[in-house]
Amino acid sequence: MIDWHDIDTVLLDMDGTLLDLAFDNFFWQVYVPQQYALQKSVSEQAALSLLADWIGRHQGTLNWYCLDFWSDELGLDIAGLKRQVADRIGFRPGAEDFLRALRASGRRVVMVTNAHPDALSLKVERTGIDQYFDALVSSHQYRAAKEEQTFWQRLNEAHPFDPLRALLVDDSLPVLGSAQRYGVNHLWSILHPDSSAPARDHTDPFPAIDRFELVLPK
What we know:
Rossmann fold, single chain
C-alpha cells in the first residue's frame, strides 16, 4: 500500500495513469496511419511501417511527444486530427475519485506529463482534469522529457518539493526509472493503462496500482 503518512507532494502522469491510454494508442496506431495513407495515396500497411520506423527513432525523446514535430514530419495537422476523435478521451476507472480524495487530503498535487501543450489543452477541455491540480506541467515547458534528469531538476526549481516525501504515479517504466535516479522516494506504476489492451502481468521493479479505490489517501 502507498505510505501516505510519508507523502507531502503527489506527482501524477496524465495519459495511461489518469486518462485511458486507449485514446492515444488508437490515435497513433490506427487513425494517423489511416489519414496518412489517404493523404499520401499509399497503403495503410505502408503508412504503418513508415510511422513505426519514424516513431521508433524518436521514442523517449521530446520529439516523440511533440505534435508540431509530427505535423512537420508527416505533413499532417496532428492537433486537428486529435480533435476529430476527441470523443474517445476519458478517465481511467476510479481516477476521478482518486483525484477528489487527493484534493480533500490537502496534499500538493502536480501533473507531470510529456503531452504537448496542445494535447494537454484538448484533454483539459474534454475532461476538466485541471480542477484537481495545483499545477499542470508539460515537459515541453522545460525542453526535456521526463525520461531525462533535466526535467526533474527544472521541475524542482519551478515547483519545489522534497523528493524523499514525494510520490510519482506514472505508467511509463523509463520515466519511473528516471525519477528514481533523481531521488523520488515513492514510485508507483499502473497495471492497466489501456482499457482496450490486456493488463500488464507486472511492472517490476515498481509496485503497480490496479484499482484506485484501493490506494485512496488517508
